[in-house]
Amino acid sequence: MEQRNRTTVQEFILTSMTLTPYFRTILCIVFLTLYLFILLGNLSILTVVIMDRRLHIPMYLFLGNLSFLDILLTSTTVPKMINGLVMEDLEISFQGCMTQIHFFHLFGSTEAMLLTSMSYDRYVAICNPLRYNIIMGKSTCFLLICICWILSLFNSVSQTILTSQLPFCYSNHVSHFFCDIKPLLQLACTDTSFNEILFTIMTGLISVSTSTLIFLSYCFICTHILKIRSPKERRKAFSACTSHLTVVFLFYGPIISRFLRPATNDSMEQDRQTAVIYTIITPALNPVIYSLRNQEVKRSLKAIYIRFKVCRN
């Protein structure tokens, strides 16, 4: 009887996008503006890192990867959100939903691991500057980047496969801006304890391990900086970490608040608010932080702009 009541879900409906025409228009303008800003800002940094040979060092290779990930992470969710607001098309196919889950978790976890690699790069640069070029050579940099992608790929593939195997029969209305694992588990008509435990373990493992390593890196960095006698050199060392530390707080802030807050009836609404910060606000602020605080990036952007202007004339 239970098998007879089960139906195969061919598509999902994103119900959180059901808004009045006025709010739909406002949100559409805001999301579209931020999305274009994210593309422009991160593509600018990516272009600078690729074109300027002086920036072909680990710090900027990591930064280029971060910009690339911000573009991919945002492009995984925002276009569908804008499409739903413009066309009132809130539907997403089952295959499209699983693809969105896969890439969202792939890019999100890769970014968390990449920020950890960047903190290690800052640790070596400040605490062991004489051996920086030996420890953080290009081969080490590419190895760290590859490890980030491979571990994240394992996480996203395993999570997506397990989610795709679940039977969905009660409803196909996903209470979220995009397809994510937690809202889908609520729609499954079977015991999802294993999926929930695995999701918590994998997400917690990535979040806790990466944030702990970043915290330890900055503990060593702060200890080393406080030993520097020259105020000028101390400010210079702190300045070298400011941009990365700001991005870390922006990235981990919503994630930590999501896990620390108690479970309430409004937890799904809070998850949606966190998702907007995580997928739109943070990627929009990252290029601003790095371009405003980093003199090398600003100089390279100016040089490319002048070169482009000369070529046009």
Model description:
The chain has a single domain, classed as Rhodopsin 7-helix transmembrane proteins (Rhopdopsin 7-helix transmembrane proteins, Up-down Bundle), CATH 1.20.1070.10. It has eleven helices and three strands. The protein has helices spanning 2-5, 21-51, 58-87, 94-127, 132-135, 138-164, 181-185, 193-226, 231-260, 267-293, 295-312, and strands at 11-14, 91-93, 173-174. Helix 2 (21-51) runs antiparallel to helix 3, helix 3 packs antiparallel against helix 4 and helix 4 runs antiparallel to helix 9. The chain is globular, with a radius of gyration of 22 Å. Mean pLDDT is 84; it is low at 1-7. It is a multi-pass membrane protein. InterPro entries: GPCR_Rhodpsn (IPR000276), GPCR_Rhodpsn_7TM (IPR017452), Olfact_rcpt (IPR000725), Olfactory_GPCR (IPR050516).
Number of strands: 3
The CATH H-level superfamily is Rhodopsin 7-helix transmembrane proteins
Indicate the CATH class: Mainly Alpha
Categorize the overall geometry: globular
GO molecular function: G protein-coupled receptor activity; olfactory receptor activity
Domain G-protein coupled receptors family 1 profile: 41-290
Protein name: Olfactory receptor
Membrane topology: Multi-pass membrane protein
Provide a brief overview of the structure.
By secondary structure, the chain is mostly helical. Helices cover 78% and strands 3% of the residues.
